[in-house]
Amino acid sequence: MTTAAFIIKNALRNKRRALLSVSSVAVSLFLLVTLQVALRELTLPPPSAGAELRVAVRNKISLTNLLPARQRGVIEKIPGVEAVSPFTWFGGRYQNEEGMSFAQFAMDADKLQSVFGEAKMNMEGYEKFKASKDACVLGKITADKYHLNVGDQITLDSTVYPGSLSFHIAGIYSGTPDDRNMLFRQDYLDESIGQPGYVGMWWLKVKSADDMTPVIKAINAAFENTSAEVRAESERNFQLGFISMLGNVKTLIASISTVVVFTLVLVSASTMSMAVRERFRELAILKALGFRRRELFAFILAESFGLAAAGAILGIGGAYILYTYGDIGKMTQGIFVSFEVTPRIIGIAALVATLLGIISAVAPSVSVARMSVVNGLKSLD
Amino acid sequence: MATAFRIVIEVGILTLLAWLVYVAITSPIAKSYNLRNVFVRWRSTLATIMGIGLVVAVFVLVQSLAAGLEKSAGNTGDARNIMIVRKGSTAESTSMVSLAQFQIMRYWEQIARDESGAPLISADLICLISQPRSDGHGEANVSVRGLKSVGIVLRPQVKLVAGRWFTPGKREVAVSQKLARRFANFHIGDTFRTAGNTLTVVGEFDGGNSAFDSEVWMDVDEARSLFDRESYSSLLVRMASPEAGKQIISRIEGDKRLPLLAGSEIKYYTDQTMTALPIKILGNFLATAMSIGAIFAAMNTMYASVGARTREVGTLRVLGYRRRTILAAFIVEGAFLAAIGGVLGCLLALPMHGVSTGTMSFNTFSETVFEFRITPLLAAKGMIFAVVVGVIGSLLPAIRASRLPVITALKSV
């Protein structure tokens, strides 16, 4: 019998225990990968194409304070700015649903293509959106969810403005990281609500990446010491700022991950030592036959490593397959969208599995090394 | 379908538990035999107990977080108060009450008076400001409540704990103590800039675990000029009597000039209770996944325990103990093991009780402070969870023990 065959035979001798060990490692690593992916998605949202050229401008007091529409002329004249659109939160509720299921923003129909170019829609949609005042465009995810099609009418009750508004769907777009939003026309909002002259935010596109910093500086400076000071920042920074509002969620998930890893090491290490302790007598015989400590250590290490590796393949691989090919949006009711298992996360989980294999082997190896052959032969356990 | 499935499982588990308790009580095997056996193989047992303990701790903590978040607004308000907001608004920050509307209602005789005869009615303005966090990681929205000085009288659950209340016109604010800890410039004596002005913190208050714990307070008319608002957000009135309260509500409903919604303050905040759904989903997912791991661990320990006591089991059978008694004995052993883990888990989670934390509420769109709340009910749930894990984990090993052939069992070494 070769050494490898000996180790494999030993590992699988108690098939039930091998299976239980491998499964508990697999479940824990699956959990670890899931938490890491969730943490990554919460703290680093997927960037959208064109984000590096986009700037978000909000009221310096906070996002919820409006901006005067007259600022637009000033921003448009800043060199390096390609297109500017208002972007106003409507806070509409669809069909008396308890919560808001998708966001709606009022913007400038002519600027949709230039500012949010990554949203793909047929030309007809753009034409209709520009042509009629009550037109709106809808993200594909939302359209599919409510079985809405081009030409349908939808009515939304605003939680921000008094009253409700009806829209005709001009087009359905896709291609952004999160195709859920509804976009409609700012002029329609102004007309219906009777509060023209204010917008929620400005979103703009700069001509090149080099224009980014100067444009941001120029916008911030332009409105300093006016009645509506602004904060201009890149789309990425704006997103990260939004995430920092989530507060301690990050700490929470990170600490749960730590507890999961700790539990995993504890349970698996104990199982491994159990497997070895059961074979104390055999190991004593091997020792009596002249096997050295390091050879025995190698046997144990190889076995625990093999079990950890099998668990890792099952757990990490399972998570990878589930999150890559499964519909994560549906599973989490739309809280998570992309849920990408990155190589880095796979690396972290694999590292944990490796450490686990080593740590589990240490305790039993030490006791095997310490035992005297006579005591080992006597042991009944 | 899913619910039916759940009910079947729950009934199954309950029946099993009831039967176990029955057998354990009537069992002729001394309970101490099983209980002492738990500690014989202490190393692997300890690992299993700790494993289950950690799982229970995570379960209890995540659930307590959800409970705290859902309760954060529920504890707010005074039964004698009526809150008035714009119809259709879901949060105070998007509500609007004009000055004219306030004037219409101000001297209604149904509103209670203070000693000097002034009506107990406060007009509030809620505005969100973005401020840097104390840990240096970015900014978050904070709710600023502008209120008339009578507004403080109307909210007896809010107590000043340090400094003094703000003086109107001097650009002063009072901050919730719990909020002060979470933001960089919110301690007494600190100043912060917003809307082109510098505000000074002169007092800290304790909101008594209500929604006011997430607020900064200042004078309402000063806030209106600061944030350039024409109208108020909401009104809060003290009713002269419960009967007068009903009259206020019906008067507002009947008045075309007042497109407002009036109702009990307590009810308003209870309805604001935000959904802790994402946290609950996380908690359930974690509990499920981790309990599977814990069940495997318990199974391993119990299998080893059964394996090591094969001869003892054979002896018991020879002495006349029945299969089902042995089955129950091992399950009770597993449940006991898990229960120790459960106690450990609850103890591990307990220090977090009352620790305040915060996140953005999607209702108010601002930082909401809330506490981990480990209620007795939650601890009980954690214990049940642990025992269920123990019972499921020891089921197969116990079946194995009860089916050992007597002769072989006796022969085994």
Task: Describe the protein in words.
The complex is a heterodimer of chains A (381) and B (413). Chain A has 15 helices and 12 strands. Chain A has helices at 3-11, 15-43, 71-76, 112-115, 123-131, 140-145, 186-193, 212-222, 235-244, 249-278, 280-289, 293-325, 328-331, 343-370, 373-378, and strands at residues 54-59, 67-68, 81-89, 92-94, 104-107, 135-139, 153-158, 164-173, 182-185, 198-199, 201-206, 230-234. In chain A, strands 4-7-8-6-9-5-3-11-1-12 form a 10-stranded mixed sheet. In chain A, strands 2-10 form a two-stranded antiparallel sheet. In chain A, 39% of the residues are buried. The longest helix of chain B has 32 residues, at 277-308. The mean pLDDT of chain B is 85. Chain B contains 14 helices and 12 strands. Chain B has helices spanning 2-26, 31-38, 42-71, 99-106, 149-153, 177-182, 220-226, 242-254, 265-272, 277-308, 310-318, 323-349, 376-403, 406-411; strands spanning 81-86, 121-132, 139-147, 159-163, 172-176, 191-194, 197-206, 215-219, 234-238, 260-264, 356-360, 367-371. The chains are: A alpha+beta (381), B alpha+beta (413). The interface between A and B is large, with 60 and 67 residues.
